[in-house]
Amino acid sequence: MSVLEGMACGKAIISSTVGAIPEVVKPENGILIEAGDVNALADALVRCATELEMATSMGKQNFKNSGRI
Q1: Residue 38 DSSP class
Q2: Degrees (nearest 5) of the Cα angle 52, 24, 68?
Q3: 46: pLDDT confidence band, cut at 50, 70 and 90?
């Protein structure tokens, strides 16, 4: 549920590949990592914090796809 809430708020998503999450989080709107991979999580967080254009683009894609505009 929190993934969908983040998407509706126009945020880039970082999540693990569990359940149905890979069905909604794609490379154009977020970063998927394997569950338990702490290094991949750290890398994804650093990417979103340093590649602001990428994170902004992901957020805009999520907001657009949430049906709020």
Answers
A1: H
A2: 70
A3: very high
Contact between 15 and 25 under an 8 Å Cβ cutoff? The reply is yes
- Partners of 21 in beta bridges: none
Q: Which amino acid is at 51?
A: E
The span from the CA of 64 to the CA of 61, in Å, is 5
User: How far is the C-alpha of 62 from the C-alpha of 29, rounded, in Å?
Assistant: 6
Mean pLDDT of the chain: 94
**Rounded CA gap, 10 and 19, in Å?**
22
- The identity of residue 56, as a single letter, is T
Q: How, if at all, do strands 13-16 and 30-33 pair?
A: parallel
Using an 8 Å Cβ cutoff, are 47 and 30 in contact? no
